[in-house]
Design brief:
Elements: E1 9-10, H1 19-30, E2 32-34, E3 53-56, E4 62-66, H2 69-72, E5 88-90, E6 104-106, E7 129-131, E8 139-140, E9 153-155, E10 164-165, E11 180-182, H3 195-199, E12 207-209, E13 232-234, E14 242-243, E15 256-258, E16 264-267, E17 281-283, E18 289-291, H4 294-302, E19 315-317
Parallel strand pairs: 4-6, 6-7, 7-9, 8-10, 9-11, 11-12, 12-13, 13-15, 14-16, 15-17, 16-18, 17-19
Antiparallel strand pairs: 1-3, 2-5, 3-4
Amino acid sequence: MGAIGPDSAVKDNSFECIELERKALLKFKQSLNDLFHCLSSWVGSDCCKWVGVRCNKHTGNVVRLHLRGTDICSKATNKSATHTKWPLSGELNASLLDLKYFNYLDLSHNDCENVQVPSFLGSLGNLWYLNLSHSSFTGKVPSQLGNLSHLQYLSLATPFSSSLWASDLSWLSGLTSLQYLDMSSVNLSRASSSWLQSINRVPFLSLLRLSNCRLSCLPQTLPFLNLTSLTILDLSFNSFDSLIPGWLSNISTLIELDLKRASLKGPISDVSWEIFCKLHSLHLSSNPQVVGEVNGLVEALTMCTYIGFGFQSTYMEFTNLIGLP
């Protein structure tokens, strides 16, 4: 993810924050439940010194909120709360819209159970980083997120089946700068017939994780393939009941490919494995209807050594495949 780096803000700010933006942050705080007082530093006139807040060193504008639950309490004055995993809960206040230069929001690992992802986030047009993962959001993913044309990183993932869902992913086509997309365990069953076509319209994706999304349709062909920059592809724990798709053979950039327990079937030889010379991790386990000799796959990958691509040891997981010696 080399193109995704830190913004122009620094911890040692030389300007006090702007009063309008300080008031916006206080409104945002008031709408949250902070039982462990992890935001206890949010007092005084200079919000640029508050925990999780980062300002532009030249203008004093708030550009970043890093409120990841696993981090903010470790920086709070309440030492008894340093080990809590989900410190913040409650509604997200639209006062964030008053932060005109705001470009980074991390609210991951908090407890927003029964709270929907607010549609106003789609109006934060400067965002390049949005992480709402592991925070138990519920309801429909708002299509307004598709307005974030500068967004490079989007994570809505949760480690288990959640009540967060999407019936349509066509809004992804508006995320023309997106490189990282993780929607693991978001219920995409209602978008199952069109999910790949929608994601294929995102031109610069390098990481795509859709594990455990209740997907049941895996198209075998595409009229064109935009996903030629993918380095990580995770489609594990879905119910495709289909062949390993031939279009995989056009993604030679893959470093990690995870297809375990995806209900795939058919000959393992249908994929041109010899093109995956950069592959470091391959998971095909628990697909009992995938058949064929694994030896041929291994030989195809090791051929990279002889054609100058420098293929090295790849972690490969094949348990529960038919055809194993």
